């Protein structure tokens, strides 16, 4: 499981238990907030609307979670959740919070899948799954591995292995953070870019609906210039070194796979790190080895791309997506 680092996005998650929040003060130290919306088939959190209004006014990136009930129908729970959050500012993939059950591992996973599949039908989004390490081990199985993970594991820098996921998009590392603007200790999290709607799920499959607009949807700056320069030097691509990742740059990109070495591999590794994918102990070494290949495959899986570990056209496009 990947460790937390220094490049992650800081956030909190809140519910009715967090009251008296100075949202603008919290915004000074946190970028993301995930708000409890619903539980079961007819419960809406009593602070849901107040938290939403305050966080929206303060300029947070906003997401919502549903606390999964062991007693009620998963399809109806999904409908309750979507009805509560549709039409609101939604920057982050919806979250299924599953952390309690007396059912068997197979039953719990079946129920989660029913909820997740219904949410996909209703919203078009693949949800994030939130859970604890111990609960994942005891109550969930590998059929959930295709969904991004938000893991809770306190007092550690690296969440424990759970047998299902190798990486996370969210890491809740404490429930006792002292956050300026929140009167009492609260949950605190590190997130990767993988939580954002535009970076995965159905949006990731349609990165460039209008080819002429690719540069607007992609990062720009020094790293793109470095890529353009390397493509010119190594492959005589004659690109303008303008720092914009547009169609000309995409068309010039080569297939890169295990065994490759050099600056282009290093650029790929940098984008993987930027998006929160671990490269193991060797990190940014310019060598396309086993760890880099595994990171590429995880990234491809999260984006709904062909999982082959090769950086081709669609993977290049996804890597340089904002």
CATH class of the largest domain: Alpha Beta
Low-pLDDT runs of 5+ residues are: 199-212
* Helical stretch tally: 12
What name does CATH use for the topology of the largest domain?
A: TIM Barrel
Cα end-to-end separation: 25 Å
**CATH architectural label of the largest domain:** Alpha-Beta Barrel
Description:
The chain is an alpha/beta fold and 322 residues long. The two termini are 25 Å apart. Helix 3 runs parallel beside helix 4. The protein contains 12 helices and 9 strands. Strand 8 and strand 9 form a beta hairpin. It is globular. It folds into 2 domains: 196 residues, Glycosidases (TIM Barrel); 109 residues, Orthogonal Bundle (Muramoyl-pentapeptide Carboxypeptidase, domain 1). The longest helix has 19 residues. An 8-stranded mixed barrel has the order 1-2-4-5-6-7-8-9, surrounded by 4 helices.
Provide tags for this entry.
eight-stranded mixed barrel; Muramoyl-pentapeptide Carboxypeptidase, domain 1; TIM Barrel; alpha/beta; 2 domains; 322 residues; 12 helices
Summed up, what is this model?
InterPro entries: GH, Glyco_hydro_25, Glyco_hydro_fam25_subgr, Peptidoglycan-bd-like, PGBD-like_sf, PGBDSf. GO terms for molecular function: lysozyme activity. 35% of the residues lie in helices and 15% in strands.
């Amino acid at each position: 499981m990947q460790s937390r680092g220094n490049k992650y996005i800081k956030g909190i998650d809140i519910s009715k238990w967090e009251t008296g929040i100075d949202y603008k003060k919290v915004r000074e130290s946190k970028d993301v907030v995930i708000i409890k919306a619903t539980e079961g088939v007819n419960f809406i959190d009593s602070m849901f609307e107040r938290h939403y209004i305050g966080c929206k006014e303060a300029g947070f990136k906003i997401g919502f979670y549903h606390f999964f009930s062991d007693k009620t129908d998963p399809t109806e729970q999904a409908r309750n959740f979507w009805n509560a959050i549709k039409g609101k500012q939604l920057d982050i993939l919806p979250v299924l919070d599953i952390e309690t059950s007396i059912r068997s591992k197979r039953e719990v996973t079946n129920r989660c899948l029913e909820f997740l599949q219904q949410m996909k039908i209703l919203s078009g989004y693949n949800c994030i799954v939130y859970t604890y390490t111990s609960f994942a081990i005891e109550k969930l199985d590998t059929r959930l591995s295709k969904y991004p993970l938000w893991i809770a594991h306190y007092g550690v820098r690296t969440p424990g292995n759970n047998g299902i996921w190798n990486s996370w998009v969210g890491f809740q590392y404490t429930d006792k953070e002292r956050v300026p603007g929140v009167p009492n200790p609260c949950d605190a999290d590190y997130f990767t870019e993988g939580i954002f709607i535009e970076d995965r799920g159905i949006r990731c499959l349609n990165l460039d609906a209008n080819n002429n607009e690719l540069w607007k949807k992609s990062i720009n700056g020094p790293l793109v210039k470095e890529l353009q320069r390397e493509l010119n030097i190594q492959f005589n691509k004659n690109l303008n070194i303008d720092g914009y990742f547009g169609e000309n740059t995409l068309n010039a990109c080569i297939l890169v796979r295990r065994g490759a070495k050099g600056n282009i591999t290093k650029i790929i590794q940098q984008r993987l790190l930027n998006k929160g994918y671990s490269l193991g102990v060797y990190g940014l070494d310019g060598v396309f080895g086993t760890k880099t290949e595994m990171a590429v495959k995880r990234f491809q899986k999260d984006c709904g791309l062909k999982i082959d570990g090769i950086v081709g056209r669609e993977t290049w496009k996804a890597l340089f997506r904002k």
